[in-house]
Amino acid sequence: MSRYIALFVQPLLALALAPALVGFIRWLKARLQSRRGAPVWQPYSEIRKLFGKEAVVSHTASWLFRATPFVVFGTGVIVASLAPIVIVPAGPLVVGDVFAAVYLLLLGTFFLALAGLDTGSPFGGMGASREMTVVALTEPTVALSIVALALNAGSTNFSQIVSRTLAEPSAALGPGHLLAFAALFIVTLAETGRLPVDNPSTHLELTMIHEAMILEYSGPYLALIEWAAALKLLVFLALAANLFMPWGIALSLSPVAVTVGVVSLVSKLGVLAVAIAVLETRVAKLRLFRVPELLSASFVLALLAVMSTFLVR
Amino acid sequence: MDGTFSQLVMLGSSGMLLTALIVLWRKGIPAYVTAYRWQAWLLAAITGTVAYYGRDPRLYWVAALLLALKGAAIPALLGTMQRRFGAQREATPYVNTETSLVIASLLVLFAYVLARPWMAVTDLPTRQGLPLALGLLFVSLFIVVSRKKAITQVIGFLMLENAIALLAAVGTRGVPLLVELGVFLDALMGFLVMQIFVYHIHETFNTIDVEELARLRH
Hints:
A: 11 helices, B: mainly alpha
């Protein structure tokens, strides 16, 4: 019974925190660029405003266009319930492992690309084709860094990976662990449309990727997609934090453990958000033709991680 | 105790390998110099770790020398060289960036396969660094053959030298101070000679692109 509660409460918490994470990164970026910046809770107001608006849908759009926001949002919520965000969902109940989580998120991306193509606007097609290029390049890295983690733990189950790292803290200092973390961090930036790959703060630019795909969306649909994008960022960062540095995560449902879990999650997300904000202030967006170089670098990192865990036994 | 030791050595060795990969990935010469400096610091740190856990105080001297010579002096000289030639970029290497990164990972894989029997016979706590050191050796050789600018090739050669030093640090329990001194002098002499060569190339051809050497000028 308690596990069911965990499975339902965790996505709600993630949904509640996700806009604040995006707002925090934006605010921090603004401060670093000596602007005042919108308050941290600005994304909540944006989402509420969008839900109050009318949705305008193109005449040429098919059912795919209307279904996509729900698919994207739904897969995000499912992953948030599977992943170790605050509580490690242990036990036989949980069907999902790392592969399920990653490919559920990928399903959302796939539908987003389809919806971008669906309306027939040139921007949507451009964004979809670019997104597919980036995703095709990040997938091998994601799979390999998962394999590196799973080889250490002997399982692709979240709870096994987490408990293995908790049981053997020196493994977290091993190169396999650190290299896989670095690879997954680069992939997170690429998959969530952050700066070296995509610029999250532009709406009308020829270089955009994620924004180009969702250009046709408005009103509640757009609100759902924006929320799901924030949720995806939170899930990826929480995965990166908790799979590699699981200390503080709640192993039981006792109030103390859950409180510690929430506090440690917020502080880990805070550290990663600061890292992202500083990175986004320091680097410029890569030209599209240099994105494969960055992603192949992350692929090499993941490959080295697998080698150092698999070949040195 | 041995566990922490081997973890630290492995961490440092993979850091050194990463700095070599940065040279393959980035295009600007200043980034290469920074990568080399980081690599030298990591090498000094590994030597210090070997000295601490192997209880060999003479190795501290080696680490200090490494820090002074490779961590400070050579990067400073490289910086002077780079400033003298202006902003030269490794725009079109013989092998493009993506391919060279993949080739580098294959070279590291090869190093792992190659180091396997060696790791099976030795019981050094640092043996896990062996494949990484071999991998660094191959990757820096690859930098030398796949890049066009003379200064990048010099950095590749210096990294090759670092790889040999790393191999000595992890493959044995550190090398005697006397041998290290000889190697230092050789490395420094080699670097100075190469520096003079690069200056001459630049003077004659107005570029440090070694492809231009095929062109007859005089």
